[in-house]
Design goal:
Helix 7 runs antiparallel to helix 8. This protein is mainly alpha-helical and 203 residues long. The longest helix has 24 residues.
């Protein structure tokens, strides 16, 4: 999953100690003076370098490797990756900030994504009925994909409903059975969070 991202941001005690391409993050900290453990993935290595008890200092870098959050941040600000990011940010600001035509183009692209039945002022791309239809279709597809489980659950709930309902109805209507009647109702409570069928809900 890490490889699907273009950039990664690493925070150490509230300080940004790296922000840049995911492909360069590992080497950045290796050049700093730390080395990954045996068979350690890049995400685990990035987390480990911010933990004094987990990071491993490379041989020959003892005593001159950054150790505090401030030292990490200072090392990053002096790196080429920081300079590249700063140039990217400056280029974006020059191209986008204070340009009415860019803002208008963005609004038009956002409006183009809206369904014809949805107001342009709405924060939703599709209307409420379209959302409801999409959710219902998705639920039906889920049921169709696990039909055996649905049949098994329905049968089990029906049997439980018959058993609990029969016991409840056969308890005498007296004050001496008040505790027993409450106990039967308590047996029904664990069924409620489940995907109960209509048969079990009719009790």
């Amino acid at each position: 999953m890490y490889d699907t991202f273009d950039k990664v941001c690493l925070i150490y005690e509230g300080r940004m100690v790296y922000y840049g391409p995911t492909s360069l993050a590992r080497q950045h900290f290796v050049d700093m003076g730390y080395e990954p453990a045996n068979r350690q993935t890049t995400p685990d290595f990035l987390v480990a370098v911010t933990d004094p008890n987990a990071r491993i200092v490379r041989e020959g870098y003892e005593g001159r490797v950054p150790r505090t959050a401030d030292e990490f941040a200072e090392y990053y600000r002096n790196s080429n990756i920081w300079q590249v990011n700063k140039e990217d940010m400056d280029a974006y600001l020059d191209d986008s900030v204070g340009k009415p035509q860019s803002a208008l183009a963005y609004r038009e692209s956002a409006w183009a994504e809206h369904a014809t039945t949805t107001s342009k002022k709405s924060s939703y791309v599709i209307s409420i009925p379209m959302q409801t239809r999409a959710v219902m279709v998705r639920r039906l597809q889920t049921l169709r994909g696990s039909m055996a489980d649905q049949v098994t659950n329905t049968v089990a709930f029906m049997v439980q409903a018959v058993v609990v309902g029969t016991v409840f109805l056969r308890i005498p209507n007296t004050t001496t059975t008040f505790f027993s009647r409450g106990g039967v109702l308590y047996l029904f409570v664990p069924l409620l969070p489940c995907r109960c069928s209509l048969s079990s809900l009719t009790l």
